Amino acid sequence: MVSSNNHTSTSTNTTAYVIGDCDVSCMKLWLVFGGIVVILLMLALYLCVPALFRPRRRRLSTWIEDAKSRKKDVTTDTYKRAMEYIRTHDPNDALPSTEKQHDILNTKGYTAWEFVRSGNSEVTNNGRWVEFFFKSTEIKKESMIQTNYPFFNPRKDIEHEEIMHYFEVTVKKMSKQVNTIAIGLTTTPYPYFRLPGYHENSVAYHSDDGRKFHNDSDGGVSYGPTWGKGDTIGCGYRPKNGEVFFTKNGEDLDVAFRVLQHTWYPSIGTDGSCELEVNFGDSDFKFKHARGFGPGSPLLSEHHKSFVALI
Ligand SMILES: *[C@@H]1O[C@H](CO)[C@@H](O)[C@H](O)[C@H]1NC(C)=O
């Protein structure tokens, strides 16, 4: 009993003592913490405020320089990779057999053409909605995609008419990361990690500078206006003279290249995340003169029906 009482009173005392003292030590702790925080804040202010105004600018420009040289290195690297790819992959100029071409046009018409995913892309809606995605760390990485079929025209008897192959692409979303979107034509296989226009047997109209590219990874040639989100870019090919032309929002930008007769695949490339919608004739082209044409020509609506009836 006694020992038990003693024990109880001691433990009660101890509890009270601890509780009472804790308030004090908590306050002490808070004071110490507060002091540390204030010192850190002052230290941070002391270090950062001048940096915000002077040294940071220098740091930023150094960073930009670094990023630029990093880009250059990557570009040189991918250039070498692309040249090696081209050296080891001969262009495949083969068209589907005439029979297959007729079959494609008879059964599906322009709906047969679809973009096919590769590299940093995803393609949905029957090959008509194209998404490219890049991580923020993927500096100056590029990716391109092609369609399942090239342009073709099995109707030899109408070859000498003003035949045109045509498609349009609308930029629906474009992240700040995008430097260039390239729309054009390539042969297959093409180095899928390079923009169309950079290498042999490829042509493209680039968004950032409005320049046209053909076997040219060194800046291109002055051609049209720049373009971006909301714009519709068309690419056409007249097989008779091997002419490639581009349009912007329905306006003809004139012939970009002549005498380039190849088995051309509609192509899109970019270096940043973006979303694009493709029109192979599914809806009216913005470029009115191309209405009734498509990737296999002439294909669309009334033209398509009368064309198929003639085959
Ligand atoms: C492509 O460009 C390279 C380098 O400028 C050149 O050597 C080559 O002959 C060109 N090829 C064609 C088909 O124009």
Structural class: alpha+beta
Q: Spatial order of the strands in the main sheet?
A: 2-3-13-5-9-10-11
Separation of termini?
A: 114 Å
| Rg value | 32 Å
- Range of helix content: 25-40%
Count every beta strand, where a strand is a DSSP E run of 2 or more residues: 13
How would you describe the shape?
A: elongated
Structure notes:
This is SPRY-domain-containing protein. Keywords: Membrane, Transmembrane, Transmembrane helix. Residues 90-285 form the B30.2/SPRY domain. The chain crosses the membrane at residues 29-53. This protein has 311 residues and is α+β, with helices and mostly antiparallel strands. The protein has a domain at 96-310: Jelly Rolls, CATH 2.60.120.920. The chain is built from four helices and 13 strands. The chain has helices spanning 2-53, 55-88, 98-107, 301-310; strands at residues 115-116, 121-124, 129-132, 143-147, 165-174, 181-186, 202-206, 212-214, 232-238, 243-248, 251-257, 265-270, 274-279. Strands 2-3-13-5-9-10-11 form a seven-stranded antiparallel β-sheet, with no helix packed on it. Strands 1-4-12-6-7-8 form a six-stranded antiparallel β-sheet, with no helix packed on it. The radius of gyration is 32 Å and the shape is elongated. Residues 200, 215 line the site of 2-acetamido-2-deoxy-beta-D-glucopyranose.
